């Protein structure tokens, strides 16, 4: 039997530090600004403002915290309904539950794998008939691929329901709206980013809230710092949270942002490599990138047709035997036990089919040509061995 450790472990999407992060961290230590204030936070927020073309950015300790604060800023309260994509990570929906509101999971469409605008509109119309207007719409740009934002924004405006744009996976992605280039996370009332260790840039763990509304940004910062009033003593009129990013973490982010454009290009090149390598297999499909959208391809994902004789799980296990990490697509939230009592709105089980046939391939920006060839050859050999002719 082959020794699993005979070759280096290839991870799905590990952190990729370039070394300059140490300069910012050392500066914070030298100045003794190591908690939730300091130059690094100011610089990191400024770099995100410039990169995303957002007027205001509030750096936080997680993307989940950003979603939580975003929903609060949009007025979500106990008993409200919040529309959420079915195909996403649980952290997208958990803050809805924090607020004792009710998530409604809407199925995906096949053009981008994101929330289906037709179903979204139909659900809103259905709820309005009984005077149950949803409070907010969460849109996710899955694996970095922007959703069909032109249609979704039109629905948001028609029914006056605000959008919270979950761009946790999509820093560097963009879409065109009215011929204008809009960076992911910056096209709605509120956007959020994540800097978890597996994202395209990391702060070791962190997130950010984006908005063009000064009052919303000020309120987000206020709530993120324990809702402390600007007085010479501790005075609190609201419940606040300990959600602010540390100056040390922001320093890592400053170093990471120096290389963000290159990382996006590397991710896209990895996607193109896989697409070219497996193009001859008609039963392997890739996440589409419709005209007018640009994906950072945070993770390169494939679909394997059910009648091919190969399943995502057996391929995942084969790669694992060779010391290569891959991962199934997100399990839809309406299938998660924790959300058993939540409503699902769909018709063709698109999200379920994507989960059943999808696999995320290694997509780290440190992968070299030898690594990619190693992954490709293992997959090709496995396909030839198991393919049903």
Features:
12 helices; Aspartate Aminotransferase, domain 1; Aspartate Aminotransferase, domain 2; 389 residues; alpha/beta; 2 domains
Q: What is the fold's blueprint, element by element?
A:
Layout: H1 21-31, H2 39-52, E1 56-60, H3 63-73, E2 81-85, H4 90-98, E3 102-106, H5 117-128, E4 136-140, H6 149-159, E5 163-166, E6 174-177, E7 180-183, E8 190-194, E9 207-211, H7 214-224, H8 247-257, H9 260-277, E10 284-286, E11 293-294, E12 300-304, H10 312-321, E13 327-328, E14 343-345, H11 350-357, E15 358-361, H12 369-386
Parallel strand pairs: 2-3, 2-4, 3-14, 4-5, 5-8
Antiparallel strand pairs: 1-9, 6-7, 6-11, 8-9, 10-12, 12-15, 13-15
Helix pairs in contact: 1-8, 2-8, 3-4, 3-7, 5-6
Order of helices and strands: HHEHEHEHEHEEEEEHHHEEEHEEHEH
Main sheet attributes: strand count, strand direction, barrel closure = 8 strands, mixed
Q: How would you sum up the global shape? A: globular
List low-confidence stretches.
Answer: none
Could you say which structural class the secondary elements and strand pairing correspond to? alpha/beta
CATH class identity of the largest domain:
Alpha Beta
Residues in β-strands, percent: 15-25%
The CATH topology of the largest domain corresponds to Aspartate Aminotransferase, domain 2
Helix content: 25-40%
Instruction: Give a count of the beta strands, DSSP E runs of length 2 or more.
Output: 15
Q: If you average the pLDDT, what whole number results?
A: 96
Give, in spatial order, the strands making up the sheet with the most strands.
Answer: 1-9-8-5-4-2-3-14
Radius of gyration: 21 Å
**What's the CATH H-level homologous superfamily of the largest domain?**
Type I PLP-dependent aspartate aminotransferase-like (Major domain)
Counted up, domains total: 2
Distance between the termini: 28 Å
Task: Count helical runs.
Answer: 12
